[in-house]
Amino acid sequence: MKKTFLLITLVIILSGALLLMNIFMGNPISKMKAEKETIEYYENAYKEKFNVYNSEYNPLIPAYIFDLGPVNNKNIKFDTGLFCQGISDEYGGILAALKISEDIGSILQKEYGHLNYEISAEEEPLASYAGESPDYFETNSKLRVLKNHYNVVISLPDGIISDTELREISPGMVKKIEMKLPYQTPNLRVYIKFKSQKLPGESDTKVGGTKFFELFPTTK
Question: What's the CA gap between 202 and 30, in Å, rounded?
Answer without folding.
Answer: 36
